[in-house]
Design a protein that fits this description.
478 residues, alpha/beta, Rossmann fold, five-stranded parallel sheet, 18 helices, 46% helix
């Protein structure tokens, strides 16, 4: 079969709407209803974020596909790359492919009968040094990564890197009716290697995503159809696991927290982390004796108990923002931060902050971040938190934040994140009854309620002061 150029006006006209939809959907900016999608389409083309696509296929079999797909899909706001674009430069080809695929929104991977060339063993070793967790993340491939005889070709690596970096990988498998390059001939030894590649993709969970195709036009139309389906799959609710929705934990049937009378705060927190409220940010403030740090610590424990990815950090004495982000990324053991880890060696703080958010974009499970002692954050950190980080929550429905301090960001109505935030001043606990219960249930005291009430009045309900008094009382009678 001959390949046909398909600069079809219908395809070109249709792709603008589809690309805008998916560009904004992948950035988390398509809203919950069709009106938000319609508004996105109406924006000027210059405001569309760059949407990067990598076309992965073997040149000897599908070289013409690369150029035809790129010719059709390239336009303002879209960047289409192929393997030949990365032959120049200092790094190895495999490293350059890794760099680009990591920043992509989609990879089009064509699987035919030929498998292409293999990288040198040194290239594979360098890649695994970059991503030491890759054999654990893609455990089904680990057996082929243990020696210098790794069987994967460059084209096969392109698919595996997309899967590893959680980039949408659209796999199209050729059959006897698919068009190939003029003069192409099947190589028996390579057919067996490609079958092994297909089996690896299957065990990685992509067995239901391999779509047959006739020619380059057919690939383009099917890809755009998939793009449209992803862009329009907005909505759903808690408990539905889809590409765009998160599975949230259920509220605990019973939770006995070791604090006195913080039931309203725990109720708000539980609604926040079980997706029972529209807000995503819980701002807690108050004087230093109100027990904010203890409360945030208990929130962290409850979050882990509910199965959330959970990270807890403090802005101690002006700790640099990069150190705070490093602490958060280390705590989130179920998420990966490849961009952030790589940028740490370069040291540019702005790049590191951007890399942290880009890696968070890839989170497919709910995550809870807790930041304490905000009043001690330096000006650089406060500016980034308030101008970049808090607005970021508008585009990531799977994140929840608890931020506490003597002072907190002001949730003024004009701020883009204000509607996502709950601001709460932590009050003293002036009632004697919860402290009497706390002294027996948590501290283990048996003293008369009158004595506990006297201490509560003397301490004016300060959780810090009362915690110290009751602990001392326990020690004095031990």
């Amino acid at each position: 079969m001959k390949l046909h150029i398909f600069r079809d006006k219908g395809i070109i006209r249709t792709t603008r709407t589809l690309w805008i939809l998916l560009s904004w959907r992948c950035r988390g900016r398509v809203g919950r209803d069709f009106r938000s999608v319609r508004n996105s389409i109406g924006m000027a083309v210059t405001s569309i974020p760059t949407f990067r696509v990598f076309i992965s296929c073997v040149s000897s079999e599908f070289r013409g596909y690369r150029e035809q797909l790129r010719s059709c899909l390239t336009a303002r706001g879209r960047e289409i790359k192929v393997q030949e674009d990365f032959t120049d430069g200092g790094a190895t080809l495999l490293e350059k492919l890794d760099d680009y695929i990591m920043a992509c929104q989609a990879v089009i991977h064509l699987v035919g009968s030929n498998c292409g060339c293999r990288p040198q063993p040194a290239e594979v070793r360098a890649l695994l040094k970059r991503h030491p967790k890759l054999p654990q993340e893609l455990a089904e491939l680990a057996g082929d990564l243990q020696s210098d005889a790794c069987p994967f070709t460059y084209t096969q690596w392109e698919a595996f890197l997309a899967i590893y970096h959680r980039v949408a990988c659209f796999i199209y498998r050729a059959d006897a009716g698919s068009s190939r390059e003029p003069g192409w001939a099947e190589v028996t030894s390579e057919v067996a290697l490609q079958e092994a590649h297909v089996q690896r993709l299957c065990v990685l969970g992509h067995d239901r995503r391999m779509v047959p195709f006739e020619d380059a036009r057919d690939v383009a139309l099917k890809f755009l159809s998939s793009v449209f389906d992803q862009a329009m799959s907005v909505g759903g609710g808690p408990g539905q696991a889809t590409e765009q929705n998160f599975v949230w934990p259920q509220p605990p049937a019973h939770f006995e927290y070791p604090l006195a009378d913080r039931e309203p705060e725990f109720d708000t927190f539980i609604r926040l982390v079980t997706n029972q409220t529209a807000e995503q940010i819980y701002l807690i403030f108050g004087p230093s004796d109100r027990g904010k740090t203890v409360l945030v610590g208990q929130f962290a424990e409850l979050g882990r108990m509910l199965g959330l990815q959970c990270a807890h950090a403090e802005f101690k004495t002006g700790l640099p923002l990069v150190e705070v982000l490093r602490s958060l990324s280390s705590d989130l053991v179920g998420l990966r931060f490849p961009r952030f880890e790589r940028e740490q060696a370069r040291g540019a703080s702005e790049t590191l902050r951007t890399a942290f958010l880009q890696d968070l974009d890839e989170a497919r499970v709910p995550a809870l971040l807790l930041l304490d002692t905000y009043e001690q954050a330096n000006e650089e950190a406060k500016q980034w938190i308030e101008q970049r980080f808090l607005p970021y929550f508008r585009r990531h429905e799977g994140l929840r934040l608890v931020l506490a301090g003597k002072v907190i960001p002001a949730a003024d109505p004009g701020r883009p994140w204000a509607s996502l935030a709950i601001s709460h001043e932590l009050p003293p606990i002036r009632s004697a009854a919860p402290w009497c219960d706390y002294s027996r249930r948590v501290v283990g005291l048996t003293h008369p309620d009158e004595l506990i009430g006297f201490l509560v009045e003397a301490a004016q309900g300060s959780p810090r002061v009362l915690g110290t008094l009751l602990a001392n009382l326990k020690r004095s009678h031990a």
